[in-house]
Amino acid sequence: MPILIYAQLQAVQEGGAASLGWVRDHLPSALQGMGPLEVAWWQWLALALLIPAGATLGYLLVRPVQAGLRRLVAATETELDDLLVDASRGPIILLVGVLASRILIGWVALAPAPLGHVVDLQQALLVVAFFWALLRLVGVVERTAPASAWVGQYPAMRSLIPLGARIARVLLVVLAVLSIATVFGYPVITILAGLGIGGIALALAAQKSLENLFGSLSIGVDQPFRVGDSVNIEGIEGEVEAIGLRSTRIRTAERTVVSLSNGRLAEMRSENFGERDRFRFRTVLSLDLATAPDLLERVRDGIDPLLRAHPKTWSEGVQVRLIGLSATSIDLEVVCWVQTRQGPEFKQVREQYLLGMLRLVRESGVQFAAPPSPVPTPPIAP
After folding, report:
1. How far apart are CA 58 and CA 99, in angstroms?
2. Which pLDDT score, from 0 to 100, does residue 13 have?
């Protein structure tokens, strides 16, 4: 018999005798009769009242307990423990309620056998409160870690935080279930051994799920993209909205959502637009074939300083060159790089480039080439 049951039996010897005398003097004989599991009807009624009584005490004492904990953690430098105290309202209520029921159970005067079952249930609830608090800790770390100085030094770890939090939650739930099974006397080692034998069959049945899990770990470690990056994955272009344990969701420009399994995604070709440090600007000016060479050189030599004068232009990448002569036009290629990471800003700079080149061409007296005339289709003979 566990030590905790002996402690409860000691409480029965002290308070149980008084409660039994009070029951014989005040309760009707119907409630003093024996019910199921060798528990009297008045004891069943008392056990039923322990649940709301413990919950009420938990709600009444949660604020004083949190206030005391805040005073204890106020002296620490980290803010993590303060946030954990604020987030642990539910576990504290459950913990206080269980402890209150453990004190009150001594006055119910249960026999050793049913008392052992009640104590096992209370221990299981204490385990639930403990792992519930750990789950809240995982949530606090998940919210605060992206803003920490350590993550600021290693920004690649930012997208690993949600994935690590999900894995931690799954592990905590598994450990909680195993701990509760231990409390109720189930052979956990035998269960684990059985799971080890059946693990092969389970792995074969869950091959795709395991493939997606390892794919998500590979994406998290290799960091080909992060949440918020604009990507092109084999023709699917959009913004990464979420990276889960099974799949990754991409929000397209049409506002639709494409889900890709992480197992396949880890092997697919992905292009990350968020990693580029500048945008490439390229256009071809098709000028009139009758343009004089000196005017052509004036336009060419005028575009170069026009581009370099813009504060967003990368000066080392400006190129303005004649690239072709056709039957209808003289083709002038303009290439440069815009120093920005934002697509909307690049579009704004590109518009300024084009307007500036249009003014320059007009002011130089040069005309753009006219589009070729369509070839007439010969009439079909009757």
Report:
1. 9
2. 44
The C-alpha angle with vertex 17 and arms to 16 and 23, in degrees rounded to 5, equals 85
Reported CATH class of domain 279-363: alpha beta
Residues 6+ apart with CB under 8 A from 117: none
Beta strand pairing call for 329-338 and 279-288: antiparallel
Per-residue pLDDT, 72: 81
Q: pTM of whole model > 0.85?
A: no
Q: Which residues pair with 243 in a beta bridge?
A: 248
Domain 212-275 falls in which CATH fold?
A: SH3 type barrels. (2.30.30)
Q: Any idea where the domains of the chain sit in the sequence?
A: 3-197, 212-275, 279-363
Q: Give how far Cα 291 sits from Cα of 295, 355, 363, Å.
A: 7, 21, 14
SS3 state of residue 279: strand
For the residues of 150-215, what is the DSSP string, one character each? HHHH-GGGTTHHHHHHHHHHHHHHHHHHHHHHHHTT--HHHHHHHHHHHHHHHHHHTHHHHHHHHH
d(CA 269, CA 213): 19
What is the average per-residue pLDDT within 248-265? 86
Question: Per residue in 88-128, pLDDT tens?
Answer: 888 888 888 888 777 777 666 666 677 777 777 888 888 88
